[in-house]
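Re: the request from the purification team.
They wanted to know what the chain is likely to look like in 3D before they choose a buffer screen. I agreed to run a prediction and write the result into the notebook, where they can find it.
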Amino acid sequence: MMSILQRITQYLAVRKNRSGIDPLEIDAALLPHLFILDVERHDPNQRVRLRVRLSGTALDRAFGRSASGHYMEEFLHGPRSADVLNGFYTCATTEKPLWMRQVVHITGRAPRYVEGVAFYVEPDLIYGGLVFGEVSDMGITSSFESRKL
């Protein structure tokens, strides 16, 4: 059986523009894990800005609040947030899909992971999905990894 991220990847990988994405075609079990980012290109001399257009309910629950309407720079925090932001910026500027995984060790709690995919979609959007979970190894340290899909 395919994981949530594999199913999201399979759906988004063949869609290059917004008109090809139909929420009614997406399995309802995937919708809570989806996000949409607006890629804002105001000044060619500055880095793009990424505003959360849509945040699925599983994401809102995991973050403890909705990210919708916020810029990614305002919302992300923690020891690997710069790496995560750079991953999204890379997706926005190269227009290449990306897989990312971040592990965060929280004192007194099991380490948690956030794993996701991001796809550039014309015009100037990033569609993707995230999943969250606990890591069984309490000794694991914070980490970040990414690769092009």
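For the purification team: DSSP finds four helices and six strands in the chain.
Please add any questions underneath this entry.
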